[in-house]
Amino acid sequence: MKIVNSTASDISQILALYETATKFQKLKGAVPWPKFSEKFVAQEVSEKRQWKIVMSDQIACVWAHTFSDPEIWGKKNSDPAIYIHRISTNPYFKGRGLVKKIVSWSKQFAARNNKKFIRMDTVGENRGLIEYYQACGFDFLGLEKLTNTDNLPAHYHKATVSLFELAL
Fold first, then answer.
1. Which residues lie closer than 8 Å to 55 by C-beta, 6 or more apart?
2. What share of the chain is helix, strand, coil (3-state, %, to 5)?
């Protein structure tokens, strides 16, 4: 297993994983992700903010990071943190503890970048996902009603999000 930046040649696979995740979200009754554009993902790839876990020469999981997330985290955005977004696992690799591997990687990545927190959010109050992220080491900080969502993807508009934080 290795964790590396995604490349431009991965974009179609990343979009396919997002589509698979969106179908699963709909099946589970969760707020589904919108369709992300190739341009959106290409921007993250070019900025080296899109990551992948590679296992058996296949993309097992993808996610993105940012160092700023003011529309979701408000005043807490000034804290030294990394923000993890859109974890999407290849169904073939589900059940292999990949989120825990992302957490381990995130701790090292955050430390190298002088950050003190790892943060994530998910739209809605998905109790199963809340418990899963808690089992991965995150504290559930509660629900927050978003108000300034103009610069966020569509699934955040007028949404309530579950907030998660892991202090280093």
1. 1, 93, 96
2. 40, 30, 30
Helices (H), the chain: 11-28, 38-46, 70-73, 98-112, 127-135
pLDDT tens sequence for the chain (168 residues) = 999 999 999 999 999 999 999 999 999 888 899 999 999 999 999 999 999 999 999 999 999 999 999 999 999 999 999 999 999 999 999 999 999 999 999 999 999 999 999 999 999 998 989 999 999 999 999 999 998 898 898 899 888 999 999 999
- Which domains can be identified in the chain, with CATH numbers? 2-167 (3.40.630.30)
Angle at Cα 47 formed by Cα 42 and Cα 53, nearest 5°?
Answer: 75
